[in-house]
Every structure is written in C-alpha cells, then in structure tokens.
Amino acid sequence: MEDDEKTVAVVVGLIDKATNSTKPDLDPRLLKSIKSVVRHSDSELRLAVHNLMSLMKQDHSQVRYLTLNIIHELFMRSKLFRTLVVDNLDQLLTLSVGFRRNQPLPAPPAVASKLRSKAIEFLEKWNTTFGIHYRQLRLGYDYLKNTLRYQFPNLQANAARIQQERRERELRTKEILLKKYELLKSNISSIKDEVNSIVDEVSECLDILISSKEENVPLDPVDEEDFEDFRNIELRTIRENSLKEADKVQENSENKVVFDALRELYKLLVTKHLVAVQESISVLIRVELSDNRLRDSMLKEFIDIRNHLKSIKKKCEEAGCVLSAPENDEEEDIWEEGPSESVNISKPGTPNKQNDSAGCSNSKATNTNATNAKATNVNLNANPNMDPLKSKLLVEAPVMKWGSFLDNWGSNRDYMANQRGLEVEGHWGRVDHDAVIPANKIAELNVQATVYEEEHKEIQQCRAPLKRGGLCERRDLKVCPFHGPIVARDDEGNPLNQEPDMKNFSREELLNQAVKNVRERDKEVIKKREYDKKELKRAKHAKIRGHNEAVLRDAAIASTPVSSAIGDSDLGREKDSLAKMLKKKATAKDRLATRLLSRKAMARQVNLGDEHSKYREAFPNQW
Amino acid sequence: MWKEIGDRESGKLRPNSFITRIRSNRASSLHLSNHKELVSSHRGSVNSLQVDLTEGRYLLSGAADASLAIYDIQRATDYEAGGLIAKHKPILVDKQHQNGHKYAISTAIWYPIDTGLFVTGSYDHHIKVWDTNTTQVVMDFKMPGKVYRTAMSSLATSHMLIAAATEDVQVRLCDMASGAFAHTLSGHRDGVMAVEWSTSSEWILMTGGCDGAIRFWDIRRAGCFSVLDQSHSQLGRRPPLADKSTTKVSTSKARAPQRKVGSGSSSKHSGTSKILKHAKGSAKQRLHPGLLTSQDRATAHYGAVLGLKATEDGMYLLSAGSDSRLRLWDIQSGCNTLVHYEIVRLQTSKAIQLAVTQDSSIVFLPCMTSVKAFDVWSGQSRMTLQGHYENVNCCFYSTHDQELYTGGNDRQILVWSPLKLIPDDADECDRRTEQPSAVDEDNWSD
C-alpha cells in the first residue's frame, strides 16, 4: 500500500512537472518516464487519467495544451486509458476545443488557438484509428464536423486523394507511352527510309565538295619541302593548323549552291531527325511491355541510326556547317565557359597596379584640371574663341577653392579599397583584396569642406557722455556695461530717439511702485505660511488614513485562507512564468493609452472629486 | 448471471423472479451501445421518441424540423466495419410531406393497439393522425395553441381519446372515432406541458401545467378530482396491500380480451375502473364536486411541470418540474413521497420525456446534456449516461430488450444497451473482421 502511494505520487508529480512549463512542447524525457510508469500499473493509469482531467480544467491554455499532448500520447497506446477518457469525451472536448459558448478557452489566446487546432487534429486521428470501437469518438467527431462545422485537417482523406491522383497520372503516362510505342512500331520503316535518304543526300554533297577540292589543290609538294625546315614544335603545330585550314573547302561562288544544300540538310538533320530519334529511344526505354524482344531490337536499330547520324553531323561540321541557332550541346558548353573566363579577368590573383596607377594619374589630372578651371574662369574673357555654351556655363560656374574632393569631381566609379600598392598582407590579418568602396560612399567621404570665415564688421562705440567730458569709447556688441544698451547717439552723446520715454517716470510713481511691491511680497509670505500650515495638517490626516488602511488590510488578509498561499513563495518560478503568459505584454500603444487615459481620468477626477477630497480631509476617520 | 441461470436450472428460482432479475440486471448496466446505431435523418432537435407497444420493434421519432421517422430497431439496414456496427436507417422519413406539419413536431406517439396508426402533435397547432402504411394524414385536429404533448391510454378499451396538452389552459381530448373534441377539461391556470394516462385505469388522466399543478381527471365526470400538493406528504413507500395486488394482476390479465371492445357504452365498466372508483371512494369523492379552494390552488412544483410518467403498476407518478426537482407521488393518496433525487439541473424551456423501467426501479431523466438514471425509491443516482453534446429532450425505455433510446438537440438518437453477454456473437464479429478488433489493444512502443 505504501509502495502504491509512493508510485502514485510519482505519476502525479511527473504529470504536474511536465505540464508546468512554458515551452511549446513536452519534455520528451518526462513523457517517456510518464509512459513507462503508467504502463506497468493500472491503478497509476487511473490516477493519471484523473489528474490529467483535472489539469485540463485549469484556467490556462498552456497547461491544457501540454496536458492534451500527454493525453494523446497515452490515448494512442493504452486501451484502458482510452475507455476511461472516452467516457468523459464531451468534457475533454469542451475543455480543449472550447465549442461551448459559455466555456471559452482561457488565455493566452495564441496558445488557445493552437490548443483548439491540435485538439481537432487529435480527435480526427483518434476517430480514424479507434472510431470503430468507441461510439463516443464517432459521436464527438460527427458533432464537431456536421453540427458545428469545424474544419478538420482531413489527413487521411487527403493522403488517399494524393495517392489516387498519382496513380492516375502514372497510368496516363503509361498509356501515352504505349500509344507512342505503337505508333513507332508502325512508323519505324518510314523513319528509317527518311533518315537513309537524308544521309545519302548529305554524303553526296560531301562527295561533291571533296572532289572539287581535290581538283583545286596542286600545291602540296611545295609545302612538303618547306615542312622539313621547321624544327620548332610550336611553329610546326601552327603550320599544321594552317594547313588543315587550307585543307578545308572554302566556300566560293562555284560551290555555293552545294554548300547551301548541305547547310539545309544539316539543319534538317540536327533539328528534326536527330531529335526524333532521340525521343523514340527514350520512349522505347521507358515503355513497359510484356514482350521485350521487339522493343530491344528496335532500340538497337535506333541507337545505330543515332550513331550514324552523329557521325554524319560531325562530318558536316568539319566541312564547315554551323548551325546558327544555339541549341547545340557544344555551343552550350562554350556559353558556359564564357563567364568563368570573365571571372578570371577580374580575379585578384594578378594584383592590377594598373588600377592604382590610374588612380594616381587621375588625381593628378584632376589637379591640373582644377587649376585649369580656375585659370579658365579667370581669363574667360580673354578666350573669345571658345564654344559659346561652354563660355556661358563658365560664367555661371562658381569659383572653387582647391580641395581633395575635386579629385573625384563627377566621377562615378567604385574604388578598390585594398589595392593601393601597400603590401599589408599578413601584418594585420587577412586582407580582402576585392573590397570595394562604392561610388556613393566615396562621394560621401569627399564632401567639399570649407573653413568658415567670419565677416569682418566694425563694432560701434558706446559714445555715452562721460562725467569727465567726452564720450565712452568702449566697443560692445549690444550692451555697454556702464551705459546700458548701445543706441545711436548724436555727437554730444544724447540718444537720438528714446529720450522722451525715459523722462515720463516721475519720482513719485516710482516710489508708489516700490511700496506696492513690498506689500505684495508681504501678502505672499502670509499666504505661504497659511498654505504650509494646511499642508502640514493634510499630511497628518493622510498619515492617519494610511495607518487605518494598513490595519484593515492586514485584518482582511489574516481572515482569508489565501494568506497561507501568499506565504508559499517557493511555489516556483515556473508558476510565475505561466502566470506571466496570461499577462498581456504592454506594447507602446498600451503604454500611451494608459498614460493618456490616466491623465484624462486625473483631470476628471480633479473636477469631480474636489468636494469629496475636501470631505475626506475634514473627516479622515470616515470612509 | 450464471449463478441465476444455474439456480433457475435447478429450480431454486421461479421463472418470474428469474426474468425480473435478468431484466433489472440488464437495466442497471446500460451504456452507450457501440454495435447499434440509429442514423438520424433529422435536421433539428429530436423531441419525441416512442417504440411501439405491440411489437416493440418500430421506433417513432419526431423532430423540430417538422420531420418524423420510423426506425426498425430489431433489424439493421446495413453493417459497418465488418459487422461490428449495425446501422439502423429510418425506414420511413417524412419531411416535405404535403399534409405534414409546418413547424416543430413536439410529440409523436403510436396508436397503442397496433402500428397501423400514429399521432403527432406540433407547434403549428395541429394534431395529426397518420396511417403508417400509406404515410397519409387521416385525421387532423386543430388546437387553440402549440401542442406540447399528446397521450393515448394503453389500457383503453372503451374509448380512443387523444389527450392533448397545449399552450391553452384547457386540456382537450380528441376522439379519433368521431374526429371531434370529446372533452374540454378546464382547471389549469396556464398552458399544459405534460399529460399522462393512468396505467391502472382507462378513465383517469393526469396533467401537469406550467402553473406547477398536477391535476387528476376522471373523464367520466366534470372537473378534476384531485390536485397534487407538494406540501402534502408521506414518508416513504406505502406498503402494498395484499388483496389489491392480486386484483391488479387479474385486471392486467383481463386487459387482453377487452382490448378490441369499441368505445361508448358506459355500462361496460372494466374491473380496473371499478377498483379505482372503489379505492378513491371514501376520501376523495367528498371533495370532488367543488374542490376546496385551498386545495385547488395547490402546486406540485415551483414552476412548470415538464414531464409526467406513471409507473407500470399505476401506483406512483413521477413528475419533473422546472424547479429542477423530480417528485414521486403516491397516486392513491395523492401524497408527495419526499424522495430526494440528486438532480443538478434540468432544462426548463421544453417539455421532457421521462422513462421508467418495467419493474419501476429506475427512472431515466434527461438532465441537460446527460441522462441520469435514479433509483426510484431511494433517489440515488445510479448512472449518468453521457453521450449527447447538447440538451437531451426525450428518452424511451424499451421494455422488450431493455434498451434506452434518447434524443437530443444535437439531432442524434442514441441507443443505450446493456452489456453484450452473448460471447459467440462477438466471436463471430471477430472472425469476420480480424483486423479492427486487433487494433483496439495496448500499443506501447516504448
């Protein structure tokens, strides 16, 4: 018995631990241990069912989600588990799918939607595998599908459909192949005839060309003599090549007709017959027949034909026929080589100093250009024989001081960053030779810089009359420390326009003003003292109120059973994180909203609660 | 079970008690049947279910989409999963019948004598009598309001009255022989939700109204002769009187030959009515002509009476009310027996149909999405049958093969049957379909 209880605790603890996590998946090790524990004892399984169902009732989608996963794992394995769960299936579905309006899924919503879709998926799976044995499963599935119209993933049906489609497609291709084969079987003689005829024609053309060439070449022996002299291998190969070139029949007015015909035939051969033969070979290879003998013989024949055609084609090419359309394999090869060559050119294997030197020369050139520009701008008028547009532009053009920015004036070129001729390789780590500074960056770096030059300005004298006689000679920008603001004065030092205003202030008025000021200040002081008194009182009241509230709160907490839970702070951080999931993350919008609302609320509160606050201050012990 | 069979074999057990034991065993082991499935053709909630009383073979169901269907519950129309699941498809579906009902059918009952007729009542204020074989409406009664429930007496030998509980305060008895209303019983102060004929006397009608009153009517006299009062109670079961029970047996035996006797002729009183007359004689008769006003105002439930069901022996009446109470009444004394049934909640908007087993030991009551089985005498909950996904409206217990049929708002008709105890049948299934039975086993991969 004791042992039993112990193991029971193990199962429940394992399940609690597995479901108490914020991760989207179960811990596989925990799951495995749950399974192994549950497998060996029915009583534990019963307890597991009980515990799982109570966990499903928890007000947290994450917990429910993980619980559902465990349920699924056990459901697919244990028969007893199935019979126990199926009895309460509607409750399970209510808690996992949330189809009852009065029992929606709990927060957080993201996990809740995941939970729902998963539950539906599981239900479908359960129904397809065990539906026959459990009417409840069928009922639940039927209810969700036909009454509530939930969208099931329909995995099985989909798979079946795809399989069916593929089978149909295969069947169709087979049929087509068979048809083609039949066609080929009936057509093979005609194809052969056609190929033979064209091959004959081509060979005839070639014969004509060769015979004409033999007529044309009587010079061979001379060359033969010369040939001995060339000892150098290179020279010899060059010569051989040229001889070969000479061997070829050159097109001229005489054999132009023959060449045209040959080209035509070649084109026909390559584009039509060769392709057709190739295709029929592929058909023969792919077709599936009960009797393969005929097919094999046909295949052999076709391969022979193809080889023959290829040899003919080669001959034609030697004779100088080239198809202009780039669909040939060889041409494709050439095309592929192209980019790699170009890459070779730009590779950093050969550090091109050319670039560097170009840069230098360029800067020099611009230097001179700049000076030239200045010069031209200066002696623009002296050059009447210039282009009128240019001269016009030169008139408008600003005179620039020399600066490094002029080096790249108007250039739109990328710079190699690490190729300035300085060999820093290996000193400071790997150097990227390809590093490029883009043109716009260069432009940014070379912004025209000018030094600010202050405009020279005469600072006026104060020119106020001095007691000693004479005028103040201080030079200040706005205010003279001795004579106030600097104003325009006449020669004797009298201000020019503000004279009458100053005179208006009589002594008496000034006195009155002073008295008034003093009285006002006194009043303020009195007010402040009163205010301070009030403040003091208010603080005292607030203190009393706060104390009262604290006492009440303590009393309230002491009387509820929650207090024990509050004391248990070691429930774990996991719990906290699960709880955190429920809290909505405060977005910037939320923060703004709360701020705005609170301010508004505050304003309203101030308007409304004025009286109330007064009342509370008057009677702080009444609430 | 095997012990009982052994006892029967050796003669220790009498045949009757053997039968009742087997029956009660089976009734107490009901569960959702996996091998029997009724394919519901309804598109609305199923409101009424009844298996015919003569053959015990045809299930009549009426639904809220004004459709009704008849299922052959003995013979499956086709099998699925290699014979594991027997599907019963409706043999008669009536949807867009030209003379059919316009609105939801609230009640559908068989003519108690044979399966040639059935009666339906609907929210379109009509009660219709159908010929089963031609599926034609042969009679149509226009009622003053929505029809909630109809009832026909299974004992009746001298009348063919359909008692109709409607929105109206008056209970009407429709005479199928003449096609007119034979009686109009007035006394209820609100619509009438439930109506039930006595199972011991063909003249006694019991009705439950939305005013919470249950009234007993003797259709040979004017007015109701008794109103059940929930505060008028007795403790426990009344000890059955020896002589009374014997006469009961005799009447039930006498019932069969009297069945075909036509209506009318008041001189032909059957034994049943005499007994009842005699029984109620002393106490009730004095009150009857002008029931005391205080008694007239008595209520059986706080709120409407949703369903009534008399036990098979005609001695007790079960009533369910919208106050989520089930009460057991002693018909004889009209007392509340104070049995407490552990009900959580009942649906309150619709009339519900209860069912009682033949030996009146278990009552089946639709409680929201489940059907609960209570011990009639102790009130303890015996089973909770959970299978429906929405509220259950009706249940019918087939005494013939101890099966329970339930219909609910989720449009399903579920079959609850006792555990299959005939192993060879299962074996046969297994042999036919080796594969599916092999699937449902433990499958531990790790």
TrEMBL record, chain A:
<dbReference type="GO" id="GO:0005694">
    <property type="term" value="C:chromosome"/>
</dbReference>
<keyword id="KW-0862">Zinc</keyword>
<dbReference type="InterPro" id="IPR049408">
    <property type="entry name" value="UVSSA_N_a-solenoid_rpt"/>
</dbReference>
<protein>
    <recommendedName>
        <fullName>UV-stimulated scaffold protein A C-terminal domain-containing protein</fullName>
    </recommendedName>
</protein>
<dbReference type="InterPro" id="IPR018610">
    <property type="entry name" value="UVSSA"/>
</dbReference>
<comment type="similarity">
    <text>Belongs to the UVSSA family.</text>
</comment>
<feature type="compositionally biased region" description="Low complexity">
    <location>
        <begin position="361"/>
        <end position="370"/>
    </location>
</feature>
<dbReference type="InterPro" id="IPR049431">
    <property type="entry name" value="UVSSA_C"/>
</dbReference>
<keyword id="KW-0234">DNA repair</keyword>
<keyword id="KW-0158">Chromosome</keyword>
<dbReference type="InterPro" id="IPR008942">
    <property type="entry name" value="ENTH_VHS"/>
</dbReference>
<keyword id="KW-0479">Metal-binding</keyword>
<feature type="compositionally biased region" description="Acidic residues">
    <location>
        <begin position="327"/>
        <end position="339"/>
    </location>
</feature>
<dbReference type="GO" id="GO:0009411">
    <property type="term" value="P:response to UV"/>
</dbReference>
<keyword id="KW-0227">DNA damage</keyword>
<dbReference type="GO" id="GO:0006283">
    <property type="term" value="P:transcription-coupled nucleotide-excision repair"/>
</dbReference>
<keyword id="KW-0175">Coiled coil</keyword>
<dbReference type="GO" id="GO:0008270">
    <property type="term" value="F:zinc ion binding"/>
</dbReference>
<dbReference type="GO" id="GO:0000993">
    <property type="term" value="F:RNA polymerase II complex binding"/>
</dbReference>
<feature type="compositionally biased region" description="Polar residues">
    <location>
        <begin position="343"/>
        <end position="360"/>
    </location>
</feature>
<dbReference type="Pfam" id="PF09740">
    <property type="entry name" value="DUF2043"/>
</dbReference>
<dbReference type="Pfam" id="PF20867">
    <property type="entry name" value="UVSSA_N"/>
</dbReference>
From TrEMBL, chain B:
<feature type="repeat" description="WD">
    <location>
        <begin position="39"/>
        <end position="81"/>
    </location>
</feature>
<dbReference type="GO" id="GO:0006283">
    <property type="term" value="P:transcription-coupled nucleotide-excision repair"/>
</dbReference>
<feature type="repeat" description="WD">
    <location>
        <begin position="385"/>
        <end position="417"/>
    </location>
</feature>
<dbReference type="InterPro" id="IPR036322">
    <property type="entry name" value="WD40_repeat_dom_sf"/>
</dbReference>
<keyword id="KW-0227">DNA damage</keyword>
<feature type="repeat" description="WD">
    <location>
        <begin position="185"/>
        <end position="227"/>
    </location>
</feature>
<dbReference type="InterPro" id="IPR015943">
    <property type="entry name" value="WD40/YVTN_repeat-like_dom_sf"/>
</dbReference>
<protein>
    <recommendedName>
        <fullName>Transducin/WD40 repeat-like superfamily protein</fullName>
    </recommendedName>
</protein>
<dbReference type="GO" id="GO:0000209">
    <property type="term" value="P:protein polyubiquitination"/>
</dbReference>
<keyword id="KW-0234">DNA repair</keyword>
<dbReference type="GO" id="GO:0043161">
    <property type="term" value="P:proteasome-mediated ubiquitin-dependent protein catabolic process"/>
</dbReference>
<feature type="region of interest" description="Disordered">
    <location>
        <begin position="234"/>
        <end position="283"/>
    </location>
</feature>
<feature type="region of interest" description="Disordered">
    <location>
        <begin position="427"/>
        <end position="446"/>
    </location>
</feature>
<feature type="repeat" description="WD">
    <location>
        <begin position="298"/>
        <end position="339"/>
    </location>
</feature>
<feature type="repeat" description="WD">
    <location>
        <begin position="98"/>
        <end position="140"/>
    </location>
</feature>
<dbReference type="InterPro" id="IPR020472">
    <property type="entry name" value="WD40_PAC1"/>
</dbReference>
<dbReference type="GO" id="GO:0031464">
    <property type="term" value="C:Cul4A-RING E3 ubiquitin ligase complex"/>
</dbReference>
<dbReference type="GO" id="GO:0000109">
    <property type="term" value="C:nucleotide-excision repair complex"/>
</dbReference>
<dbReference type="Pfam" id="PF00400">
    <property type="entry name" value="WD40"/>
</dbReference>
<dbReference type="InterPro" id="IPR042238">
    <property type="entry name" value="Rad28/ERCC8/Ckn1/ATCSA-1"/>
</dbReference>
<keyword id="KW-0853">WD repeat</keyword>
<dbReference type="InterPro" id="IPR001680">
    <property type="entry name" value="WD40_rpt"/>
</dbReference>
